[in-house]
User: Fold these one by one.
Assistant:
Number 1:
Amino acid sequence: MSAIPAAGRTALRAARRSRRLVGGLRVRLVVTFVLVALVSAVTATALAYRDARTAVLQRTQNTAVNDLRERTAVVAAGFDLPPDQRSLSWFAAKVSEGLGARVVVARHQDLSAVSDRYADTEGRITAGLRAAVRAGDGARFQRVVWRGEPYLVVGMPVAYADGDRRASGLEVFSITDLRAERDDTAALLDSVRAGTLPVVVLAAALALLAAGTVLRPVRKLGRATRELAAGDLGSRVAVRGHDELADLARTFNESADALQSSDTELRAQEAKARRFVADVSHELRTPLAAMTMVATVLEEDADQLPPDVAHAARTVGAETARLSRLVEDLMEISRFDAGAARLNASPVDLADTVRASLALRGWTDRLTTQLPPGIRVVVDRRRVDVIVANLVGNALRHGAPPVTVTLAASGDGWVTLEVADRGPGLPPEARERVFDRFYKADAARTRSTADDDADRAVPRGAGQGFGQGSGLGTAIALENARLHGGTIAVAQRAQGGAVFTLRLPLRHTEEEDECGADQ
């Protein structure tokens, strides 16, 4: 998988920051605070406007009704009924004089008089109000909008003043202009609206302050979590206060302490296990050397021994050789685990190196090779030999001919070495575990009877991946590939059989090119 370009990484980081800014907790807190403040301000404005408007209109209505009632009572006391047009006009004018700028309309049966003869009253005094005044015995009022302007119309019947409250048939209406009250309530609404913006700004500032107070420990906890995930098991957060965030920080520290304790214990156990394997392998080398010498002598003289004794001698020799390989493999694995394995790298022609490895084991005539010359890489020849011996040895033992070895250089700075066979291949579960230590896929691949000599041809450190081997060969091959900065993959061929692919970089960095003594 190719690396992401620098520009792509920058864009990816910018996108992540943008997502955090858009969907972050700080933004949500600020938006929530602002929305709450805005809704509160709008609600308060609406309630204040409604109450103020109601209060202003109620005061105006009460004043208009009381003024009309009092002024009518004063003027009607000396007014003779039934009136004519002239007296009715005088009545309307007198009532209007005591009401200021209000227009007064007096009606008696078919007669009608207006205090301001230029005023249009027909559009402002509705038929419904007239009917209500005519049918009732008290003051009635109605707010109307005429030509886009608000007015308050108050009407009341005039009763005889003889004590029995009989209707006289005289009706009085006053028209009050409500534009001043409308302007007052509008000014109040504007002032409340003007105060909404400071309220929202203050809410945003308080939200930022609250978000900082809440998110600061959350950011510290997130930073500590990332450090813990990166391997810094000593990362902790300071616990302040006794709220939920403090409980969360305390729980994180307790979890980190438990994880660090477990990690320390596991590392100690792993180190002990590695030392045990290394010590056991080292201690076995001396007696195994003696056993190998004795087994070699017995095998050389096996033809002169009785058949049963000869078979036993050959069996002891084979098992001693296999035990020696296992000990060498264990020591090699312990070097990788301890980080002591080093590359003794030098520029080589990889095709020549592979040919030499195949020729050393007498496999050249049993393979189909495509090894173009001129592919030069910086590798450790011995470790490449171990990889080739393991992959090709496994193909010969457990696969079926033809076994092909193909070397190729790709244009992306890598070189690949494929080892393929036409055997039964590997099932999916075996392919997933083929590089595990001590894993043997005995049932996955068959063993050729002509390949028994291949067990003896595997060099020191090569191991065996399947069947009669130690189960460490493929694991050692993969570790050697990784030590070069490469890898090994396994797949199933469409035509049948397994294919192992070794990928190595054509060039190394300076650190990878350093040569050290192989331990």
Note: The CA atoms of residues 370 and 406 lie 5 Å apart.
Number 2:
Amino acid sequence: MRLPAVRFGLRTRLVGAFLLVAAISAATTATLTYREARSAILKQAQDTAVDQFRDRIGAQAVTLPMDEEQLRRACRSLAREGKPHPWTVFAEYGTLRVSSSDRPTSDIITPALRAAARGSAHGSFQRVVKDGVPWLTVGMPALIDRGDGGQPTGLVLYAVMRLSTEEANVEAMVTAARDGALPALLIALVPALLAARSVLRPVRDLRRAAAGIGRGELDTRIEVRGSDELAGLARTFNDSSTKLQESVAELRQAEARARRFASDVSHELRTPLAGMLAVTEVLDEDAAQLNPDTATAVRLISTETDKLATLVEDLMEISRFDAKAADLHLDEVDVAEAIRKTVENRHWRDRIRLELPSGIRAMLDPRRFDIIVANLVGNALRHGAEPVTVRLRTERRGTTDRLVTEVLDSGPGIDPAVLPHVFDRFYKADAARTRSAGSGLGLAITLENVRLHGGTVHAADGPAGGALFTVELPLERPSEPSLERPSEPPLERLSERPSEPPLERLSERPSEPPLEAP
């Protein structure tokens, strides 16, 4: 089983790195100190013993030949004068082997030392560890002074001395270094925490400031302390925040002006459009009595006036959403009956296939739900192919019940490149298509109405082809509608106006296909 990765905070990593450096420095210093101190202690004992052994051999008259008893007395005499610790002295003279102890020879004396002692007039020494015990062995030949320098006599004396005291001193140093390491690390923890705090404070300030910027508090700034790299980062952040605040303020002002312009233009067009609709209504009724060219022109003007009225109404509706002036008037609605009324009022009954189970009731705004269904079905009829199917069902999502409405056409589906933009305002899938039967705002208005209900809408290709639009709304009353936009003050002109009814013809007539100019 793979264990989850453990993540450490910046403070922990900084303190850990500081303590690691302190531990490595302490260990390195202790190691070097140990090596130097050990060498100094052993070298001092070694030099003292070698010099003392050489001097004592030189001071003692050696008369050859000597028998075994004479050699033993000489060895015991040298052993008694051993410094800095007692010696055990061994003598080798031809085949004769004697010592100051009961053993005639020692296995601590290595062949290498014997060879070096016989081959050098100054003797040799060697440190040996035997069964965990450190020893110093010194080999020194006995010389006869004949005036031209010492001459070897064949007698070689060996001194064997334990270095237990020196080794104990070295071990005491190691123990002291080990016992002092933990307090040293604990002491190093204090500057480590102070250093981590000095680094983390600007980072925490930067995090809080970035979070404030993310919440839309563009006046957030960081207090600059010092003149190091972190202070430079704080100054850069403050400069960036200032420029961002200025840019956003300019964009909001431009957006507010654009929304106000669209709202004002749409409102001002209502009065002349109302008159134009009344006039074109009368002209349509008399078109049959006019000559063919005049009748065609009259019908063309009537069709284009209808389109202009629809565009004005859609612009005013989208302006209300932008200004946060749109609200819900919820009522308990029989959803299936509401969809049937939407279809029948627009004379689509013969072109739509309805799959509406009865008994589904929900808290909806009837007018806005009518717009949602009408825009989706109209879009399917206009850009897809018949028949268009409208399905209704309910689903359980977590702890809430959702109302699901699907609109599926029989067309070729939606191009993957177009899919992310289907709810954009005035978006045209074909750039060469400059005019369309709709205003280009229908799906955008649908999206806003769905969001106002606290629901979601998305587009996809159906399982068997065609474009599929799915609307999910809560069955219960939404707690708080969310338009997913930053809070902005409403447009003054819109908020000061009462809601106005849409422009209508003087009399209802069936929808007619648009006429093109001859």
Note: Residues 480-499, 505-518 have pLDDT under 50 and may be disordered.
Number 3:
Amino acid sequence: MEHWWRDAVIYQVYVRSFLDSTGDGIGDLAGVRAGLPYLKKLGVDGIWLSPFYPSPQHDHGYDVADYCDVDPTFGDLAEFDRLMSAADRLGLRVLLDIVPNHCSSEHPWFRQALAASPKSPERARFHFADGRGPNGGQPPNNWHAMFGGPAWTRVTEADGRPGQWYLHMFTPDQPDWNWRNPETAAEFERVLRFWLDRGVDGFRIDVAAGLFKHPDLPDSHDPEADARTRDSVNPLAWNQPEVHDVWRHWRAVCEEYTARDGSERLLVGEVSVPTARQHAQYVRSDELHQAFFFDLLSAPWCDDAFRKVISEAMQDIAGTGSTVTWVLNNHDQVRTVTRYGEFTPEGSGLGPARARAAALLMLALPGAAYIYQGEELGLPEVIDLPDEVLTDPIFRRTGSRARIRDGCRVPLPWSGQASPFGFTSGTDTARPWLPQPDYFAEYATDRALADTRSFWHLYRDGLHLRSTLPHLGEGSLSWLETPPGVLAFERGDGFVCAVNFGTEPVPAPVAGAPLLASGPTPAGVLPGSTAAWWINDL
């Protein structure tokens, strides 16, 4: 059996912002198909597509109205099939983003629930409950939605009177499914089989630690926690034990398809839990194949912090028989260049150097890795988008720009000196759905390909070596003794990766010139904010 996923490098395509084939300013599936040769040249093993299903787009596709079709904004099923065929010809795997915790308020089943009466079978598919207080005017419990405000919205019944409340852990446009209702499990098995029959290689599972809520829906002891952190910290709403039964069933469905041709269908979960040990429970041999390990993404730029999270992952997650799934960024996070240091359009400051070093470190670690689109260009976060163009529901719900996600979703620059930078097809006048800053010209793909010192070439060279060196990919690591501020480990027979987290140069842990480095690295020296790879017997 081909265990391709264990050390695969997957590129996350945020479809709206990748490449627009129609000139309407919104990326689409045909644009993704046109960009596949670029991704093949980069050297990734496959792609993960953000949701492209029919949706009112209140949360850009994570509010799904139909799980088995394509929104006309992005194309149709015939275009999806063409994309699958093109990816197959290039040897690229395709993962879909599936959203099982919640759907759109325009989903037919939820519309039926609104039209039905309390305690009806239609409402049992979701979490409807009577309110508290006089006339049921207060929410059923004190839970907060992670995108701001209460987690409950009251409905108007058919007779015009205020009625029950429904649960939505994100926004009122995204009602939560009731996974204690067997109809929900049956419907999602149908969805899985629909896409598996069309040839997909697996699924990225949104909110994989969610789905089940405490059956009594009691008050939270810390009702402000979700509002403060926008994380899955309410133990009554997340990480319930029953969720593991869902993943066991989904794993069995995938293995049924795997048995047909020997190629494993992958389940990778967005699992937000407090510890690596809890994370490991999701990747046991009969559950998810992988789950994103977000601790590396959230670690401060510090050798001790990186060593701690890497060691915990290797001990607790790799110990299950799975491999660690490393990430430095995604569509919900501040871009790496900006997160690691102050950014200026000219690229000065520590952010770019640290981001390059972190990328080389991640690609040297045992297991799989996911790369968010634009990271290979060194794109910074766009932090000065005007309020009137912001689309993130967090901004709409809270009025605050804190932790909004539009800045990492600005459409990619492909070529040229001015917006739309080749993002739109056949026109230089179309306006991308989010405005691109003028300085994106410095990060355009055509410039990156032509400049051997660019982020793109660092990623391409790292991916090429990762695929050819027997030391890399799946396996283990051993830490090396280093001076303060330096992290170094050995892989296989003599491969060494080292990162200098400080700003001053230190002696390199290996003699001779490095095989690959994130910046200029003289023999015998490891400059500050630099990572490098060596093989001792070169």
Note: The mean pLDDT is 93.
Number 4:
Amino acid sequence: MPSQLIARSVDVLAAPGERHDEILTPAALAFIGTLTEAFLQRRQDLLKERRRRTMRLAEGSPLDFPMVTRRIRDDPDWRVAPPGPGLTDRRVEITGPPERRTAVNALNSGARVWLADFEDAIAPTWANVINGQLNLLDAIERRIDFTTTEGNEYRLATDRPLATIVVRPRGWHLDEEHLEFDGRPVPAALVDFGLYFFHCAQRQIDAGHGPYFYLPKLENRDEARLWNDIFVLAQELLGIPRGTVRATVLIETITAAFEMEEILYELREHSAGLNAGRWDYLFSLIKTFGHRSDFLLPDRAQVTMTAPFMRAYTELLVATCHKRGAHAIGGMAAQVPGKEPRAHEAALAKVRLDKEREAEDGFDGSWVAHPGLVPVCREVFDGVLGERPHQLDRTREDVAVTPADLLAVRRIGGPPTGEGVRTNVSVAVRYFAAWLGGQGAVALDGLMEDAATAEIARTQIWQWLRHGRVDRATVLRVLDEELDSLAAQHPDAPLPEVQGLFERTCLAAELPQFFTPDAYSRHLVRRLEYRS
């Protein structure tokens, strides 16, 4: 690393753990310090702009395709970079936390890509964050094989290709309070990106792939430009050719849906496409317009991908990506295959129907949450793609989406049901308990859920309360019943903490933007002084 570019190192405010010294090396900490010094203020400014824009929209400012960037949308000539090695064919992608067993199962699953998720699929305890980095390092070095105490062996396959690793760092709204720079916490996104890039970028290049990322919860083109500048500096610092990084952006906020082309443009030398993040998209819709009655959503089960405003969103995403030579990746199939034959077949049938719609719409691949869903997703996309690696040639010039189409929520509006209220309270309570216990990917009611599910569950409760569709007494009664049920099933569950988190993030007069900063700062941070 060129010495003239090295800033002060970050300080580690946590006790050392086993093998942590392999990740928290002086050079790696200096690398993160350099990135933090260069970009911390811009990140802060962008978060302030998020809040200002939220207020403007709440006050009635219209949401539209930006006039100031019309020239970018009207220019027919620009394209994103070609796919990086290992990202040409993405017909099946599997997601999961960077835990050791999950890593082996995902890499062996037959999926083309494994999204190693530091964001919604883990609770960001210090151990989870650093052990996740160690697991990725071990996976790339092919030394992640292990045997459980029960004697179950997990070994990387040697007779077939492994999935390409793509890392999802945490969002811009989160801090990593175990690392400090100039007296302030380091942005969690820079920690997750920086540690992986420093240790694994060149290793991935040597292995025939590259440093690839999924970027979560971006709200506009300026946030995409920030990531692009980070990529440029990181490559310069480590002597990696500019344009080696590839990043797929999750379109999971309503404001980003209005700037898809601009986001691709800002990242065009590093872009790997866009992904349709369903639950976070609905969560963002409520956060942005939840105070308005014409944006009132019914039970989650009734908000399917065939809803007109969701169809508009996904069709615009495919058309935008293929216009610019970028991959369009579909949403999550979260079903967990069961042991009971009829339930198992019903789950696979739902997945098949969902993936058939995506493949027929022009998506180049899609997500699954469990290795057991890889075959059905692959079969569906094989049927459409054949030997082709993607369907970028389907430019979807038939798609014409207006701002009104993206915002036409009222066309599926309806009152919540008692079952819908209970489902949301139950999911939020059980997920909060798991998250506070250090687990971010949780099997609930036959689905593999992550933080996005808890976010949509809690914000729907808040929205229904705000508009008088359910009364507070009913929610509190259901909450008490679900806490009792949780206690019966899990006697060690942190009930007071779960109840407090629910009340602060679901029942407050003003809706907290995310539940994770509150839960993290109150329960997961252990500021034990340690200097590496």
Note: The two ends are 19 Å apart (CA to CA).
